[in-house]
Specification:
The complex is a heterodimer of chains A (432) and B (345). Chain A has 432 residues and is mainly alpha-helical. Chain A has 19 helices and four strands. Chain A has three domains: 55 residues; 135 residues, no CATH class; 218 residues, MetI-like (MetI-like fold). With 345 residues, chain B is an alpha/beta fold. Chain B is globular and about 65 Å long. The chains are: A mainly alpha (432), B alpha/beta (345).
Chain lengths: 432, 345
Amino acid sequence: MSNKMSHHRSNIEQVRHSLKKRHRQEKRFILLGKLSVLTGFLFLAFLLTDIGIKAWPAFQQHWIQLDVTFDAQILDVEAPADEAALKKGNYRGVLKKSLYAMFPDVSARRDKKALFKLISSGAEYQVRDILLADPRKLGTTQQIWVLADDDVERFLKEPALRESQQSDRRIKDNQVAWLDQLSGQGRIESQWNWAFLTSGDSREPEQAGIAGALRGTMLTILVTLAMSFPLGLAAAVYLEEFAPQNRWTDLIEINVNNLAAVPSIVFGLLGLAVFISFFGVPRSAPLVGGMVLTLMTLPTIIIASRASLKSVPPSIRDAALALGASKVQTVFQHVVPLAMPGILTGTIIGMAQALGETAPLLMIGMVAFIVDIPQGITDSATVLPVQIYLWADSPERAFMAKTSAAIIVLLLFLVTMNLLAVVLRKRFERKW
Amino acid sequence: MKKLVLSAAVAALSMNALQAAGRDTISVMGSSTVYPFATVVAERFGKGTDFKTPKIESTGTGGGMKLFCAGDGIDTPDMTNASRRIKKSEFEMCQKNGVAGITEVMIGYDGIVIANAKKSEVMKLSRKDIFLALAKQVPAKDGSEKLVANPYKTWKEVNPALPANKIEVLGPPPTSGTRDAFAELALEGGCKTFDWIKAMKKSDKSRYKKVCHSVREDGAYIEAGENDNLIVQKLTANPKALGVFGFSFLDQNADKVQGSTIDGSVPTFENIADGSYPVSRPLYFYVKKAHVGRIPGMVEYVTEFTSDAAMGEDGYLADKGLIPLPEKMRNEVRENSVGMKSLEL
């Protein structure tokens, strides 16, 4: 008896002894967990702040006010001019004249060139469009705000540049003096850069916008959704509910799982060979992009949908069948609606994955310089990640800010999609 | 949902018909080095005329040639940009596939610079130094006519006048046209200074090429990818490293990096233009003559590209860092290209 007691006590001793150790272990693990969450959070915070700080200049834009005289003689048009003639006018000459008139001291050819470089090369089209919109302005003098050149932009946005040596900056001392004079007259103004959201791509950073890529992304995602959702859903329902269990369905299942892990560039190659070369779908269009991304997202959707269908309790099926519903009725009126939240989540995750792809699009010609905003799924287009890649690769320094700004737009797009997934799931969710 | 599936199917089927109806946008492929220049011309062309803005894809010179030479159907590109001249093999592939008439347009020069961070000293290199520092095999130090695996660890070992920094050069990968040009102009240029290697060119050309164009793979030359902005950033972080990239990136980042002198010549716009800076190469694009008249605006695009406003000395391409051709050559190029003269190799 006493032996047993002492044995018993020693057990308790042991437990007591090890309890401290186990508590320590637990504490250590919790601390480790907290640390890893914190590290992840810090990385994310660092990334977002960095992008935010770099992107900020892209949302501000400097404009310079000029007194532009639409001189018919310089424009080289006859007074009551038709649109075609007005379009061909020499607007560069008009702009030059107005700048030279503002700085009469500038006479050397080299200096005149430097002076003209203060304004964006897109200014002539801007001025042209003003006259085209209202041809009655021919012969009058207008005060027009035109875009500043990207080098001027950078100079005005980075105060440190002013202190640096002349050879280190693209804006030289004489240009600095002219800019100071202009801003002294209140002719330089900084505005919110709406054009970034409304215009297409450009090789001039001050004119480049994200609208083309944004529209291209939407069209491509729509095509992907329209093709991959019905296909994926049908395949998943058939495989899960109707297909017999045999070697063939096993083989298909293994293949679907493997396809989900195939590098995405392979799908691009396939798209090039099959869709473009064989079926003749136009290159660089959202249609072919959507088709390639469909190939890529299908496995994800099928796997997620099957898992979701599997999680519907068999009692639901049994109840429906017992009440005389056919197999198809059971599946489509009871099982699929109940599995919908999971299916939708899988689909949206697949879409989000497709949204960030550039590699497969390279092969099918969507990594391209496209200025015109696409109007339909057969127009040439590019997508947000491709736009980011192309801007990051450009020599002009101002594109660095544009790159970060485009990343922000892409992130917002992704957040919106994920939010949509959460809302849909909440709405359809059932509990049993 | 049914409607969606149906409309998608209809859209896919009607594609063939659409494709046959033709295309009203010029399609250009090719070199990522020419891309920044071609895109500027395309944009101005689109804004200044009633034609649509041409679509420029950045596929690399080789990739562009392959697509360009695939045939003369309307689904093939109309033009391709190249950071080197078309190869004989590519020209023959074109001929074989029915692309008979090709017009070559030389647009200007691009300088390749070797740069380091502004806070370091300017490196004064010769092509021989570059070859000795970066080639896979170099002549033995004892002066005998023997090749040994590159033993040099620091620049000082290569040339006593250089600093004792570790040899660390960031540059483009072998798939890049810039890398080909760098090997041909800088490495081979230094390689040729050894008479016995130069003699090899006649006796054993493939060995000569292998010796002069192979870059060492022991970590001294670091492949930094195709993104030149990344190389610039890495240089500011590591002041002892050197980087190899195109002149336009030096031009844009003059506050961060400085170009090394090569054979005594500073990489400036003027020095590259007059040819005294030795590492520069011509850039081209090629036009498919069979598409002229079938795709609207082809001749007009070529005219815009070769105009003085674009590729002239004060043209907008010079602002973007393209080194213009001498005036005489420019006039010749303009005449030949607008007249769509066929290339013969």
